């Protein structure tokens, strides 16, 4: 567990976020990502979120395996899988990974994030990873009380959908459930 205080940042689009930094050691990230995907796969939405593109993928079922080889964590769902470089990527004896590429590939920043509405109330909850070049590797959105399980705006918030966020925040940040998480009104189309 890592005690961490958030910093509030303004995004380029004017939105605000609370960012809780996480450790980036290979073993820590391996345990974190494996825990999230093994325990909460049914409610996760994940993929890279970059300017101009958002991949919002859902898990077809629990991972078949989560493995680590040469710094790359692989989360397997069968044919569907993804790789993340979270550790030292050495390459092979005949094709070693150049030092600058090792640094660029590896996760250099990890954070739990609460997206805030205009009243500073949380409205999204996620994990983000960035490589050594500052490029986003992955965003994992936790179940959202303002959305239904089929990704529609909820008529009323379902606060039980905060359970994954609360457990992960307690386990990895030492945070108690925060009443502010239940203070928002959602996406402005029915909640509140």
Largest sheet: 7 strands, antiparallel
What number is the mean pLDDT? 93
What class, by secondary structure content?
A: alpha+beta
Q: Which range does the strand content fall in?
A: 25-35%
**CATH topology term:** Heme iron utilization protein-like fold
**Fraction in helix:** 10-25%
Q: Tell me, what's the shape?
A: globular
Task: Tally the structural domains.
Answer: 1
How would you summarize what this structure contains?
This protein is α+β, with helices and mostly antiparallel strands and 192 residues long. It has three helices and twelve strands, in the order E-E-H-E-E-E-E-E-E-E-H-E-E-E-H.
Question: What would you say this structure looks like, in words?
Answer:
With 192 residues, the protein is an alpha+beta fold. It has a single domain (7-176), classed as Heme iron utilization protein-like fold (3-Layer(aba) Sandwich), CATH 3.40.1570.20. It has helices at 26-40, 99-105, 163-173; strands at residues 7-10, 16-22, 45-47, 49-50, 53-54, 57-58, 65-69, 72-76, 81-85, 107-116, 122-131, 136-141. The protein has a seven-stranded antiparallel beta sheet with strand order 1-2-10-11-12-3-6.
